[in-house]
Amino acid sequence: MTDVTDVVPVETTEQKALRLKAEGNQKYSAKEYDDAIALYTQAIVAHPRCEFYGNRAAAYIATNKFTDALADCLTALEMDDTFRKAYIRGVKCYTELQQLDDAQQLAQRGLEKFKNDKDLKQGYDRVNIIRNKLQRIEQKLTSISLKYDAMYESHLNDTQSPQSSSSSSSSTPTKGDGDGDEDMKEKSSEEEKSSMPPAIAHKLNEQEQREIDIAISMIDSLLRSDLSQSVALKATKIRALLIKQDCEGALSAATNTLRFNKDNIQVTKLRAIALFRNGSTDSAIKHLQQILRKDPDNKEIKKLFKLFKSIGRAKVAANDAFKSNDLALALTRYTECMAFDRSNHKFNCILYANRSAVWLKQKEWQNAYDDASVAIELDETYVKAYGRRLQALYGLDRYDEAVGDAERALALDPSSDDLKLQLREAKIQLKRSKKKDYYKILGVDKDATETEIKKGFRKMAMIYHPDKFASGSDDEQKNAEEKFKEIGEAYEVLKDPKLKQRYDSGVDPDQLKSGGCGGMPGGGVDISHIFDLLGGMNGGGHGHGHGGMPGGFPFSSGQQRPGQSYTFRFG
Questions:
Q1: Does the pLDDT of residue 554 top 70, yes or no?
Q2: Over the range 68-81, which residues count as b (16 or more CB within 10 Å of their CB) and which as e?
Q3: 329-366: pLDDT as tens digits
Q4: How far apart are alpha carbons 131 and 138 in whole angstroms?
Q5: In sequence order, what DSSP letters do the residues of 57-101 get, joined into one string?
Q6: CA-CA distances (angstroms) from residue 223 to 119, 120, 174?
Q7: Nearest residue to 93 (alpha-carbon basis) of 107, 113, 78
């Protein structure tokens, strides 16, 4: 016979559920929300009650799982429409999810049950405050977004690409056309205009910058307090960051949002735009393809896909033209690329810097400087643009400014050996600019070849040959002779690899060597040696005149005996 004291009372399902709820409450108080959710779930399975759903909803809210929490609140209200906490928590969930109409409707239902309930009234009024803030945010962003085309509005509505438009508008005059000359002039004028940079459309003024910053601040405040799970508001923030040209911030925000909303088309599209603006064209296109697989008839995404592909092809074509040294075509292609996406600072910064490189190859120093300056204005951290502008400044003989650009570039990347070398070279060029510029004297570039240096010497020697000034005034003859000596001095240095290397490294011309062959810097120039240089170059030498150019020039050095003259030939 069993002792009655040994009988363990059987726990009913309701008692079990209450025990599990109590354990869940302890976990909730300890902020161990996942464990609390598991215990509340067991309680619901054992014996469903509205308060169990209400408690689990509170734990879901604590872990930002507002969709799950809302489902529990609505279930609790189906079980008991007088469960006050379910109304309060349900209003919060709807609000956090930015389902504002639903939030107010639920609050109104609650107020019908609980007249003048402070919490429900506050929830209802809070929705109105949020609505007003959202309206202000949207007004600020919409006006600026449309003004600056930050979301490609005009591109998506344009049926013709800039490149095809420019191609179709060009015309070639027909032979025999009486207006052919005028047509050619117009065409030349159009080509000249095509090389000019289009205005950058997206440049926020101070007032607009403040408006954007206020909008982003308001968005962050709402996301922290009332609308933490609002995908729509997070998408609005991404738009704001794109308008602000904070492309990296936009990409980061889009990536975080998409992590928990993988199928959201709007966020996927915005991440594609952010990827494209950060230079990841292939990844951007893949995102658009992902959308089109799910929604093949999405016209907006189709247009955006076509636009991104067109921009990518146009940039590749421009780069290919530059690499193949077709500079005229490269200029045209880079200019066409700019028209595709005028509001993208990062993209256009690279294009302007690339076009500056084309101008540099053409020795169009001012155009190169202007394009590099625009690139720097668009992105002050783009190191390559400083290098391009520095080269243009060399061509413009503005060496002080070149040193400044070299210093700014190095400040952006202090550990770069290349930028340190660039600054050193800029200082050498500045120092040299204050002394004799042998390259300039011979009319050649600083990277001139040996052949180009010889040609420059011959050309400048012909121009300033003293015999050409024989009938001139004493001052003209003196100036020509000094210039002629300077030309010989320059050639003597630049034709000698060792002297040229020392000169290029910044050694003062007067310190290159003392005296030496022909009387080099530091020892004066023997003018007859210049004729030896010219004669040795062309097979000529001392002799009698042959009647002047082009056969030869008789020259009296001032040191020869009466009747003696020197003749040298330019082939």
A1: no
A2: bbbbbbbbbbeeee
A3: 999 999 988 888 777 888 889 999 999 999 999 999 99
A4: 10
A5: HHHHHHTT-HHHHHHHHHHHHHH-TT-HHHHHHHHHHHHHTT-HH
A6: 21, 21, 65
A7: 107
- For residues 364 and 351, the answer to whether their CB atoms sit within 8 Å is no
DSSP 553: E
Q: What is the CA radius of gyration of the chain?
A: 40
Structure tokens at 200: 């950058």
Q: How far is CA 345 from CA 7, 377, 543, in A?
A: 81, 9, 67
Question: Which residues, 6+ apart, have CB-to-CB distance to 564 below 8 Å?
Answer: 556
Tokens of 107: 């609050």
Residue 550 in this model has a pLDDT that exceeds 70: no
C-alpha closest to that of 277 among 456, 416, 459, 150: 150
Tokens representing 418 are 């290349």
* Among the listed residues 314, 153, 163, 303, the one whose alpha carbon sits nearest the alpha carbon of residue 242: 153
Q: Residue 566: beta bridge partners?
A: 555
Question: 389-415: per-residue pLDDT in tens?
Answer: 999 999 998 999 999 999 999 999 999
pLDDT, position 559: 39
Produce one character per residue of 353-382: b if its CB has 16 or more CB atoms within 10 Å, e if not.
Answer: bbbbbbbbeeebbebbbbbbbbbbebbeeb
466-500 tens-digit pLDDT: 888 888 888 888 888 888 888 888 888 898 888 88
Q: Of 252, 287, 282, give the one whose Cα is nearest residue 272.
A: 287
In angstroms, the CA 91 to CA 253 distance is 27
Q: Judge whether 512 and 501 are in contact, CB under 8 Å.
A: no
Please report, for residues 67, 143, 335, 384, the alpha-carbon distance to residue 203 in angstroms, rounded to integers and kept in the order given: 40, 14, 19, 21
Q: Which range has highest mean pLDDT (27-31, 429-433, 505-509, 515-519)?
A: 27-31
CA nearest neighbour of 50 among 78, 24, 29, 25: 78
CA distance 216 to 252: 15
212 burial (CB, 10 Å; 0-12 / 13-18 / 19+) is buried
- Which positions ≥6 away from 175 have C-beta within 8 Å? none
- Cα separation of 412 and 408, whole Å? 7
Nearest to 401 by CA among 377, 378, 433, 353: 433
Estimate to the nearest angstrom the gap between the alpha carbon of 235 and the chain centroid. 23
